[in-house]
From TrEMBL, chain B:
It comes from Pedobacter antarcticus 4BY. GO terms for molecular function: catalytic activity; iron-sulfur cluster binding; metal ion binding. Pfam families: HHH_3, Radical_SAM. It comes from the Bacteria. Its cofactor is [4Fe-4S] cluster. Keywords: Iron, Iron-sulfur, Metal-binding, S-adenosyl-L-methionine. This is Radical SAM protein. Gene3D superfamilies: Aldolase class I, Photosystem II 12 kDa extrinsic protein. The keyword S-adenosyl-L-methionine applies. Residues 61-197 form the Radical SAM core domain. InterPro entries: Aldolase_TIM, DNA_rSAM_put, Endo/Exo/Phosphatase_dom_1, rSAM, rSAM_sf, RuvA_2-like.
Length: 253, 418
């Protein structure tokens, strides 16, 4: 069996699918470069990213699949996880080799894994839309630092751009070390120098605007007064707001 | 200055918390004027309180001064509590600043009745107009319709609000007469009906002329207090059913009564709120809206109350064993939806997946079916052959034996002799 080694990007994956169809080697094992352990018995093929090959495969997918499924595949790519890459690869190969609409076969493990992974990514994206708490910096930019389980920033951009059209904001992925900045016109990808002290999702007091502490306080008050102690249900509370997100939440500080 | 606003927010948020509705779904307002805010069609819950309820809107009263004396309400005239009132500017600035920080989806504005209905409604209207017109706010606004307010005011408010609601308070007229002698159901029905007719009319006009403004795009809702008066579940759900039908309501909320008064007509302070009952009512509500059940199938004269130990769908299935077992590989979608342990998502997946071959148990489990529950009611490709037919009560015992209720700490599964 051959090993296909790719770089763990969408382009790499699509190129791998192209190469497979060019050679039809039968069953192969797909691995990412950073997880790969050299092996004496298997023959390794390096996949060199090629945007033309990748876009040909992508076009084929767009022709065969509905919009919903294209969105699902996009989400699965953002999951950045080895198991999902393999399922994506097998799904693409199956899709182009069989005439049937295999994407509806939820009895197939790849289809099920992809639809479940896409759901996980969408859930993480939705949680970010809910749990991001902007803080106004001294120079009037609304900032929030996040470290989501999946690389969801590309999915968040449109939502925040539409919503906060009249204010400048930054959403920064502290784990993947990049973010997006909106300047009231368009969104740019940025990389911050994190030595400035922006290591956590909460800004230090010195960098906050004058009003910020008042609204933080008001929000914490509101959160307390809107609770009904007679109905206390901590298990439900934690199920809805898992503890790993508490670090973002102003009301939980 | 900031201390006073904190105090007001504490009083007026505390008074508003008994309103259950916090949904921000169904809004269609888009940020077309480069202002602030854009609706999210399914709504977003920005946080959850420690009692597990979602917080998506800034839910406050404009004031808790009230001329009415309804026994079930904290803001009743005769209650000795701190009173406060926001100015229009204060509500607007709180909403804008909370929204800018992504704390909330929008505003839920209600109010005690001061002076009279029109005076109160006019104040509410001033807040929403300022938000929409001066601040270019496109977030979600849920506004209470004040019963008895003039139709012109209600109609104008509907142009700026996303959702409007009026609380029915008690599920039956008799219950309402007992606790709030000054109020009647008719006072709620008249404005609900008026708004509903306006919604329909605006929609018709929009079909002909595109720039007709939106009118209450997220529809109307209402709320009933449960457990303050001795209604049966049947009466409650039939009232809900009637309101869903007559006024195309988006939601009916059921709010378990939390004792707040020493009034002898009401449960005493310290009584546990009927949380399980409330949960069962919501489950029934969901069965009616998403699972194709008619209210009379679940609650009727022979079953006026919902079971506490099992959910209403399982309870229906156990009473109607003649429809089961359902063959997963051939049955209609409608019937698969009725199997306990299969939800809407799994039912849809099953119907699509079975075109590719007969489904097996392991596939059903992976799709997300609660198999331990569903297995008593279904057949699939590799179901084991069952030598005897079990009765409904035996299946119930099996299911209860292997499941742990999150509510019932003590075993209620005692032998019934009669």
């Amino acid at each position: 069996m051959q090993i296909y080694l790719f770089d763990g990007t969408t382009e790499g994956l699509l190129t791998a699918v192209f190469e497979w169809f060019e050679r039809k080697p039968g069953k192969i094992s797909l691995q990412t470069k950073d997880k790969h352990q050299p092996d004496a018995f298997y023959d390794v093929m390096f996949i060199h990213n090629d945007s033309q090959k990748a876009s040909r495969v992508w076009k084929g997918l767009v022709q065969k699949l509905s919009k919903d499924w294209i969105r699902r595949l996009h989400c699965c790519c953002l999951a950045e996880n080895e198991e999902t890459w393999i399922a994506l690869f097998q799904f693409c190969c199956n899709l182009f080799t069989t005439p049937a609409a295999i994407q509806y076969n939820y009895g197939d493990p790849n289809v099920l894994l992809l639809s479940q992974t896409a759901k996980k990514v969408e859930r993480e994206k939705h949680r970010m839309e809910a749990f991001i708490r902007f803080q106004e910096t001294a120079d009037g930019i609304y900032y929030c630092g996040i470290d989501p389980d999946f690389n969801v920033i590309p999915l968040l951009q449109r939502h925040f751009q539409n919503r906060y059209a009249d204010q400048q904001w930054i959403i920064y992925d502290l784990k993947r070390k990049y973010g997006i900045f909106y300047n009231k016109q368009d969104v740019q990808e940025i990389q911050l120098d994190l030595k400035m002290g922006l290591r956590s999702s909460i800004l230090p007091a010195t960098q906050q605007s004058a009003q910020e502490s008042l609204y933080t306080l008001l929000w914490q008050d509101y959160f307390k007064s809107t609770n009904i102690p007679a109905r206390k249900n901590t298990a439900l509370h934690i199920r809805h707001v898992p503890k790993r997100y508490w670090k973002y939440l102003t009301e939980k500080q | 200055m900031s201390d006073r606003i904190r105090e007001k927010l504490n009083i007026l948020a505390d008074a508003a918390k008994y309103d259950v509705s916090c949904s921000s779904s169904g809004g269609t307002r888009k940020n077309t004027n480069k202002g602030l805010g854009d609706s999210h069609s399914s709504g977003i819950c920005h946080t959850y309180t420690e009692d597990g309820r979602c917080v998506s809107l800034l839910k406050i009263l404009l004031t808790n001064h009230c001329i009415f004396d309804c026994a079930y309400c904290v803001s009743r005239k005769s209650n000795d509590i701190q009173r406060a009132a926001f100015t229009v500017e204060e509500v607007v600035s709180l909403t804008m600043n909370f929204y800018r920080r992504n704390y909330i989806e929008g505003l839920f504005l209600s109010s005690g009745i001061f002076k009279n209905a029109d005076f109160t409604m006019e104040r509410l209207l001033r807040v929403v107009k300022k938000l929409r017109l001066e601040e270019r706010f496109n977030g979600y606004i849920h506004l209470k319709t004040i019963p008895g307010a003039s139709e012109e005011l209600i109609k104008e408010a509907g142009l700026y609000a996303d959702r409007m609601s009026i609380n029915l308070e008690m599920p039956t007229e008799a219950g309402l007469r007992l606790l709030a002698p000054e109020k009647t159901h008719q006072e709620v029905i008249t404005p609900l009906d008026y708004v509903q007719k306006q919604i329909v009319q605006f929609k018709e006009e929009r079909k002909l002329i595109r720039n007709v403004p939106k009118f209450v795009p997220a529809g109307q809702s209402t709320q009933m207090v449960i457990g303050a008066t001795p209604e049966t579940d049947k009466e409650i759900m039939q009232t809900a059913h009637r309101f869903y039908q007559d006024f195309s309501l988006k939601r009916v909320y059921y709010s378990g009564y939390i004792p707040i008064s020493h009034d002898q007509r009401l449960p005493v302070i310290g009584t546990q709120p009927p949380l399980i009952r409330e949960n069962r009512l919501y489950q029934t509500d969901w069965l009616m809206r998403f699972y194709g059940f008619h209210v009379n199938e679940i609650l009727n004269d022979s079953n006026p109350h919902l079971d506490i130990d099992i959910d209403p769908k399982l309870s229906w299935a156990l009473r109607n064993m003649q429809y089961f077992p359902v063959d997963i590989n051939t049955a209609a979608y409608k019937m698969i939806l009725r199997v306990p342990g299969i939800g809407v998502g799994s039912a849809k997946k099953i119907v699509q997946a079975r075109q590719f071959g007969r489904l097996r148990i392991d596939q059903l489990k992976k799709i997300g079916v609660a198999y331990n529950r569903a297995r008593h009611f279904i057949q699939c490709a590799d179901s084991p052959i069952q030598l005897r037919d079990y009765q409904g009560f035996q299946i119930k015992a099996f299911i209860l034996a292997e499941s742990q209720s999150k509510y019932l700490k003590h075993d209620l599964n005692q032998i019934k002799l009669f």
